[in-house]
Amino acid sequence: MAQATPTAERAYEHVKELILDGTYGSGELLSEGQVAAELGISRTPVREAFLRLRSDGFLELYPKRGALVVPVSLGEGRDIMQARLLLESYALDTLAARGPEALRRVGDDLAARCGPAATPREARDAGHAYHAALIAAAGNRTVTGLFETLWHQHQRFTAAALIGRQEVAEDTAEHLALARALQHGDAAGAKDLLHRHIGSILRRAGADGDSLSLPDRVA
């Protein structure tokens, strides 16, 4: 794939952020001309950005009409978060099988990633880095790739769960609690906290967070 031009990258980040913060709402039809005018650029880099956002699952393109912001239903959001729970539970099980020292090392790394976030965007970026580090620690490149693909799909849904200071603080506190459990070598406790964390995100986004199924506990 050809590398995006700086202008196309700027258009991509602009549209993506306005989708995530709700400025561009679900079901809204965007035009290349509209975005180009907002940024003071030509339509060509906007077209490149729209194609990339379609690949990420944010937009559906309609020739000569524009780009539709793809709605994410509560049911779809729940399915996405269930998939996250499965992948991250696998990572915890893998680390548990390596013993307490492996858990402590990952816990130390994750705890260091739990600093305060000033904005919802910073919280989203920090959340990605945190959960990606947990997945990567398992050492399975296929699972890592699946997680990154899934992250694109779940970003819009979880953005609704990180809309203010209270939500950001809750997310950070949940991350730190999970990291502390790993630092103490408590894999089963960490897995329970992961389940609660993902359930909490679902509830903040307006879905039922209590019906997620948790894989068998680690010993």
In short:
This protein is mostly helical and 219 residues long. Helix content is 68%, strand content 5%.
Map the helices and strands.
Layout: H1 6-20, E1 29-30, H2 32-39, H3 43-55, E2 59-62, E3 66-69, H4 74-98, H5 100-112, H6 120-137, H7 141-159, H8 165-183, H9 187-204
Antiparallel strand pairs: 1-3, 2-3
Helix pairs in contact: 1-3, 2-3, 4-5, 4-6, 4-7, 4-9, 5-8, 6-7, 6-8, 8-9
How many angstroms separate the termini? 44 Å
Radius of gyration: 19 Å
**What is the global morphology?**
elongated
Tell me roughly what share of residues is in helical segments. 55-70%
Largest sheet: 3 strands, antiparallel
Strand order of the largest sheet: 1-3-2
Number of H- or I-type helical stretches: 9
Q: Structural class from helices and strands?
A: mainly alpha
Mean pLDDT: 88
Beta-strand content? under 5%
Low-confidence stretches: none
Please provide the count of β strands: 3
Q: What is the H/E string?
A: HEHHEEHHHHHH
Can you put this structure into words, describing what you see?
The radius of gyration is 19 Å and the shape is elongated. Strands 1-3-2 form a 3-stranded antiparallel β-sheet. The chain contains 9 helices and 3 strands; from the N terminus they run H-E-H-H-E-E-H-H-H-H-H-H. The chain is 68% helix and 5% strand. With 219 residues, the protein is mostly helical. The longest helix has 25 residues, at 74-98. The chain has helices spanning 6-20, 32-39, 43-55, 74-98, 100-112, 120-137, 141-159, 165-183, 187-204, and strands at residues 29-30, 59-62, 66-69. Helix 4 crosses helix 6 (120-137) and helix 5 packs antiparallel against helix 8. A hairpin with a 3-residue loop joins strand 2 and strand 3. This is GntR family transcriptional regulator.
